[in-house]
Specification:
about 260 residues, mainly alpha, Serine Threonine Protein Phosphatase 5, Tetratricopeptide repeat, three-stranded antiparallel sheet, 14 helices
Length: about 260
């Protein structure tokens, strides 16, 4: 276990971790990329890996005893035929003294990729203790990992996320759409069903146009989603900001007669 500069504690495996570093980064630091993140060394610290794997004690010795050689020269001095491989048998020994920052895999990125297995392994590694900032991180459109799961109908990822403390289930994107809006509009009834079980869900939240999830489901003709939202207590009388229509009127306007019958 080690503590990053922002005070967050992380647990890492003590089994050997292989890297193809050091490598120069844009911030003029030496960076070691390993399987759970990025280990960054200050530029005045020298790492002299050999072509063969070395353990953490050898690395510490080479760093402390070679202050004059630049990191890039240290890397280039190794055998050109094979890239240097650095093996950290006990990474915590290095983290405690030299770590500047560790960049974890992003929950958002895993959700964008739709890889439920990778997300499950990530959460297991962190014992389901993911910071709210990481859990609710958004892309340039304002969509978090949960919104991506709802938009694509990824039930496995949605199920993993909604059980985590700190998840903002009502988080909206740049257009004001929440995960419930996106799932209802796309007809992902299983995701809608999961979301309606969340105790903090605001089922009648409006987007920037004043549309609720029920309106979205009705105007798209999503019959199952319409039924689920009504059963969960969605209001059929609210009206949007533009046309001033309620959900049943939206259903009739767009020719969704089945949804109109269900709402009536």
């Amino acid at each position: 276990t080690f503590e990053s500069p922002n005070g967050v504690r992380r647990k890492i495996p003590v089994t050997p971790v292989l890297s193809t570093g050091p490598k120069k980064s844009n911030q003029h630091h030496d960076t070691l990329h390993y399987r759970h993140g990025t280990l960054v060394f200050p530029s005045d610290i020298v790492v002299q890996p050999s072509a063969k794997a070395i353990d953490s004690s050898s690395l510490l010795t080479s760093v402390l005893n070679s202050p004059s050689q630049s990191p890039s020269e240290a890397v280039m001095s190794s055998a050109a035929s094979s890239p240097p491989i650095i093996q950290f048998s006990h990474p915590a020994a290095i983290f405690n003294q030299f770590v500047v920052s560790l960049v974890d895999h992003s929950v958002l990125k895993l959700c964008q990729d739709g890889d439920a297995g990778a997300l499950s392994r990530y959460l297991s590694l962190h014992h389901d203790k993911v910071s709210a900032r990481n859990l609710n991180a958004t892309d340039q459109t304002g969509k978090s990992g949960l919104l991506h799961a709802a938009m694509t109908g990824n039930v496995a990822i949605a199920r993993l996320l909604i059980k985590l403390p700190g998840l903002e289930v009502n988080l909206a994107d740049n257009e004001g759409n929440t995960a419930l809006h996106l799932a209802s509009q796309a007809g992902h009834a299983d995701v809608v069903s999961l979301l309606t079980l969340c105790p903090n869900l605001s089922i009648d939240i409006r987007n920037n146009a004043g549309l609720t999830a029920l309106m979205k489901a009705a105007l798209q003709g999503r019959v199952r989603c319409t039924r689920l939202l009504l059963l969960a207590g969605a209001s059929p009388v609210l009206r949007d900001f533009g046309r001033g229509l309620c959900s049943v009127e939206w259903a009739r306007l767009t020719g969704r007669t089945k949804c109109a019958e269900i709402i009536d």
